[in-house]
Amino acid sequence: MTSRFQWFYQALGALAAVFICLTLLIELAIIIGRFANFQIDGGDAYAGYFMAAGSFLALAATLRQGDHIRVTLILQRLHGRPRVWVEIFCLAVATLLTAYFTYYAGKLAYDSYIYHDISQNTDATPLWIPQLSMAVGLFGLFVAFAEEFVYVVRTRRLPREESGEMARTE
Questions:
Q1: Of 16, 30, 150, nearest to 92 (Cα)?
Q2: How far apart are the C-alpha atoms of 89 and 57, rounded to whole Å?
Q3: What is the C-alpha to C-alpha distance for residues 9 and 103, in angstroms, rounded to an integer?
Q4: Are 83 and 91 in contact (CB under 8 A)?
Q5: What mean pLDDT is reported for the chain?
Q6: 116 in helix, strand or coil?
Q7: pLDDT of residue 162
Q8: Alpha helices (runs of H) in the chain, residue ranges in sequence order
Q9: Are the beta carbons of 88 and 156 closer than 8 angstroms?
Q10: Sign of the CA dihedral running 84, 89, 90, 94
């Protein structure tokens, strides 16, 4: 399945990689600081913010690559129309839930901005900044689910089967 939003998913994935690398750099700075007797104020908080940003921003790209852990036990046993209908149902539920989470994550970031909510750590970071990455990542996941839902409803084909991609097993 080709995607109109592939550039968006790739941009979010690249941004997620940047945040994961920043997490590593902060952690290394904290470790080196312990040996050199200096402390980075709020370093642990920033490592947490960057890790959360990397995790949420990677959701859409991960879904599009088929790397999310999926419950395929039932789907593998179904064939034909029943399988497509169960997939449509699952994608509809996932799209609705992701829309709900996206709305409230955006509302949380907006409320934190309006009320000047800041971190309780020594860094006193405005919380809307790290919360915004959560809202953007969830929005990307919503777009990915919605796009896949529309595709399956229109074509009655599963995108992973069409490309010959099998479900990954852990």
A1: 150
A2: 25
A3: 19
A4: no
A5: 89
A6: coil
A7: 47
A8: 6-36, 43-57, 59-64, 73-77, 81-114, 128-155, 159-162
A9: no
A10: positive
